[in-house]
C-alpha cells in the first residue's frame, strides 16, 4: 500500500520528458562546441579568413549553448512542478484556495513557455538538418572530384567576397585534402547536433501533454471542491 502511494506521487511522464530535454541539451552542447571549433579551423586555415571575420562563430556557439542551458533549467522547474501536482502532493499542496490558483497560474505559464521553446527548437532542428545536408553535399563533392581539380563552393550559392573578399575556391591539393578530412570529421558532430536538438523537441512536445494534463487535474480539483462545499451546505440546511 505504501509503495503504491509512493509510486502515485512520482511524475513518470515529467521525468521522461526531463531526461529527453536535459540529455538533448548535453548532447547538443558538446557536439556544437566541437563542430563550431572545426568550422573555425575550416574558415581560418582553408579559406584564410581573419579572426575578426569569424568572430561570429564563437558568438553563435556561446549564444546557443546559453539558450540550451536556460531551457534545461526550465525543464528542471517543470519537473518540480510535476512533483507538486502529482498524487498525494497535489492533494496536500494544490487542493484549495491560493495554492490551487497559483498551481493553475504556473501550469498555464509553463504551457505557454513550453510552446514557445518548442517553436524555437523546432527551428534550430530544421537549421541543423539543413547544415547536415550541406555537409553531405560537400562530402560528395570531395568524393567525386577529379584528381588535380579545384574545389569551388560558389557552385552551391556561396558568393565570392561575401566575407571581406574571401574567395571560396581551393586549388592547392594539400589544402583540399585537409578540407575534405575536416568535412568528413564533421559527420559525427553534425549528427550529434541534430540528434540533440531533436531530443529537445520531443521532450518539449512531451511536456506539452503532461503540463496540459496537470492543468486539467488542477481544474478538476477546484470543481470537486466547489461541489463538495455545495453538498455540505445542502446537508446542513436539511439538518
TrEMBL record:
Checking InterPro entries in the record gives:
Myelin_PLP
Extract one GO BP annotation from the record: neuron projection development
Listed under GO cellular component are: plasma membrane
The parts of the chain that form a coiled coil are: none
Transmembrane stretches, start-end: 12-33, 64-85, 105-134, 185-205
Asked if the record carries the keyword Magnesium, the reply is no
Any Pfam family hit: Myelin_PLP
Keywords, comma-separated and alphabetical: Membrane, Transmembrane, Transmembrane helix
The answer to whether keyword Transmembrane applies is: yes
Q: Which PANTHER family match?
A: M6, ISOFORM F (PTHR11683:SF12), MYELIN PROTEOLIPID (PTHR11683)
In Swiss-Prot or TrEMBL terms, this protein is called Neuronal membrane glycoprotein M6-a-like
Q: Which organism is it from?
A: Lingula anatina (Brachiopod)
Amino acid at each position: 500500500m505504501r509503495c503504491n502511494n509512493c509510486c502515485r506521487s512520482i511524475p513518470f511522464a515529467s521525468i521522461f520528458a526531463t531526461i529527453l530535454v536535459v540529455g538533448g541539451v548535453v548532447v547538443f552542447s558538446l557536439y556544437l562546441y566541437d563542430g563550431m571549433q572545426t568550422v573555425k579551423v575550416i574558415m581560418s586555415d582553408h579559406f584564410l579568413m581573419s579572426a575578426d571575420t569569424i568572430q561570429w562563430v564563437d558568438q553563435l556557439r556561446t549564444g546557443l549553448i546559453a539558450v540550451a542551458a536556460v531551457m534545461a533549467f526550465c525543464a528542471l522547474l517543470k519537473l518540480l512542478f510535476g512533483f507538486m501536482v502529482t498524487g498525494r502532493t497535489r492533494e496536500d499542496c494544490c487542493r484549495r484556495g491560493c495554492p490551487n490558483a497559483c498551481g493553475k497560474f504556473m501550469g498555464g505559464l509553463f504551457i505557454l513557455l513550453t510552446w514557445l521553446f518548442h517553436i524555437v527548437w523546432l527551428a534550430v532542428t530544421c537549421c541543423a538538418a539543413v547544415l547536415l545536408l550541406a555537409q553531405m553535399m560537400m562530402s560528395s563533392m570531395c568524393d567525386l572530384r577529379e584528381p588535380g581539380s579545384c574545389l569551388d563552393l560558389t557552385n552551391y550559392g556561396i558568393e565570392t567576397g561575401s566575407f571581406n573578399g574571401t574567395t571560396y575556391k581551393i586549388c592547392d591539393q594539400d589544402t583540399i585534402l585537409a578540407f575534405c578530412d575536416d568535412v568528413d570529421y564533421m559527420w559525427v558532430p553534425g549528427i550529434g547536433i541534430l540528434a540533440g536538438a531533436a531530443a529537445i523537441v520531443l521532450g518539449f512536445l512531451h511536456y506539452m501533454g503532461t503540463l496540459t494534463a496537470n492543468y486539467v487535474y488542477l481544474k478538476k480539483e477546484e470543481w470537486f471542491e466547489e461541489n463538495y462545499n455545495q453538498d455540505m451546505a445542502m446537508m446542513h440546511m436539511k439538518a
